[in-house]
Amino acid sequence: MAFSVQNLNVNADDLEQLGTKEKFWFRYEDRPEKYLFKYSRDKTGEHWSEKAAEQLCRALGIPHASYDIATMNGRYGVISKNIIPDNCRMVMGNEVLHKDSPSIYPEPELRDKQFVRVKEHTVSRVLACLDRSNTLPPPNWEAVSSLNAGDIFCGYLMLDALISNQDRHHENWAIVLNTETQEKYLCETYDHAASLGRELLDEERHERLTTKDQNRSLEFFVRKARSEIFKMKHDKKPLLTIDAFFTAIEEREAAKKHWIEKLRSLSSDEIYAIFENIPPEIITETSREFSAKMVFENQRRLLTDDRA
User: What CATH fold (topology level) applies to the domain 5-81?
Assistant: First the structure.
């Protein structure tokens, strides 16, 4: 069944300053909860890439924010329900890491400043914070009880590798703090629009699908995807998305077994169905084919890697 596309006509409660995209919070007249509408940038498929990523999370059992495609003022975007309860606050990764290591990790920038890459944002540092016993898995986590918050974050990194998401910077993961009980848990994964080649033009997609030049092929394209997480703070470049995942699970047998099995059970029919359910008025057939084949190729790379 094709994903629905809402025609939104609401008044903004307030603008959301975090990040670089236009977005605002609003409420439906018949619902008390707050929702966020985020515009897609011009000439990108950020609305359908976000929806496809959400559906892959669902198929893989990865805790995630939910998204619906919508239009507002004649422009496409996505709607997401607020995942932070009223008695809680979202603590972004940069704040988490700074509080853990104030002499090592830079102090967070003001919320209205543009994201700046930080080399101290390493796999080991992130996982060390999440491994602490007082940081719980996301609520309603129904998978293996032996997996902790750090193990679940490994699933987020596997998703990044599967969809070539290059935006897992230190404000694109978070913990949620209950301000009354001080209980903390890993936030569900969110904000995956920078994936699936959503910024490419169809001319380039077609070329990469049909070329005999290996350096211009889809297979070569997905191999270049980099995370925003480093292995060591002195490295010149962040890890490739596939290396970020395998670095994370290197000494985590339970997490490795769980996520690789989940990925192996993801069928080609499930993947095809996700992209087939994107309405034709918002995605071209070339975009649909290219993005689905990105997922197939990344799944193949992950499952055939010697580290799997």
Answer: Phosphorylase Kinase; domain 1 (3.30.200)
